């Protein structure tokens, strides 16, 4: 009889409630559990700021001031939702994220499929490294490179335009081009990371499937259509659901740093919920409760959208659902 099992009267084996393996696995997962408790779940207590008119009590701690501030119910949410800027912020945040989600699936999957067809391992690694490198660069660094290209005085693009006989463009005063610039920069920075994720999944596909397809005379396009894409479907769906869960958030570095502090001329095309919250935090006329309400609104909407997206996936392909 095994040491971790007990003999029951009926002759069956009953496993002990706790074994050495359980202890080892618990110790391995304990650091992650503590991290999530301290930095994810414990801060949720601060959500009550969104329902209070937070006022600092002289000589008292933050917790004392928070608990003794007046309850205002949903008035902080009403301030954000009734703001004149809310429709514009909602439009920009949703539309940009929808474009990012579509391009963040189509382009990485296509590139991963093309790179998987490269026979030279050295060239494949070089291409992967070149496309993956921007992922490690911060938006602060990238913003300086963008400014070097778009500077009104000595920018590279304006220098080329003037050399060809054209007139320089005041990039940071003209909002016409910025939707394309922001989309390009987001794709450029995230393309390599997403491509590596899909490429790793492609390398895990059984090669005998391709060999059988080649024997049947299947072309490269037919192999991609009937083997690669169906095998990538689970990871594509998972990435889609996870990106849908961030549809009410935006990359603050992209919309604030790359635009050089989001000047007023670019407000209509580059303002998002995150830039609005940052500007409200810097304003002395907006209380911290109102900014907390805006942030909580984002979190609740993202939670709803990810659950809705997962529910829709379960109706189409239950095995590919995330939850």
Order of helices and strands: EEHEHEHHHHHHHHHHHH
Largest sheet: 2 strands, antiparallel
Instruction: Give the mean pLDDT.
Output: 87
Number of beta strands? 4
Question: Tell me, what's the shape?
Answer: globular
Q: Whole-Å distance between the termini?
A: 38 Å
In short:
With 323 residues, the chain is mostly helical. The protein has 14 helices and 4 strands.
Description of the structure:
By secondary structure, the protein is mainly α. The chain is built from 14 helices and four strands. The chain has helices spanning 20-41, 62-67, 75-81, 86-115, 121-132, 139-150, 156-163, 178-203, 207-215, 220-244, 252-257, 267-270, 273-282, 288-316, and strands at residues 5-7, 13-15, 52-53, 70-71. α5 packs antiparallel against α8 and α10 (220-244) packs antiparallel against α14 (288-316). Mean pLDDT is 87; it is low at 1-5.
Write the layout of secondary structure elements.
Layout: E1 5-7, E2 13-15, H1 20-41, E3 52-53, H2 62-67, E4 70-71, H3 75-81, H4 86-115, H5 121-132, H6 139-150, H7 156-163, H8 178-203, H9 207-215, H10 220-244, H11 252-257, H12 267-270, H13 273-282, H14 288-316
Antiparallel strand pairs: 1-2, 3-4
Helix pairs in contact: 3-14, 4-8, 4-10, 5-8, 10-14, 13-14
Main attributes?
323 residues, two-stranded antiparallel sheet, 14 helices, 4 strands, disordered N terminus
